[in-house]
Amino acid sequence: MAKSRKKRPPRRRTSGPARSPEQELLDALRAALDSPTPGPLLATAALLLSTTIGEEAPPVAVLVQSLSEFDLPETSAALLAIATLAGDADLRRRVLREIADRGQVLPRWLAELHRTEPVGRAVEITTVYRDADQLVVGATTPGGFPLTAVVLVDNELGAFAAEGYVVESPLEEVVPLLLEDAGPDTRVRDLPPADARARIEDALRELDLGPGTGGYEDWTERRPLVEWLVSLLPPGGEASGLGELSDDELEEITERFLASPFGPAWSDARLRALVDDVLTSASGNGAGDPLVWSPHNVHRLLNPELWFLDRTTPHLERAPELLRDLVRFGHAERGLRPELTATALAAIDAATDAFLAALRESDGNDPDVPDAAPRISP
Question: Which residues form the domain of 142?
Answer without folding.
Answer: 117-231
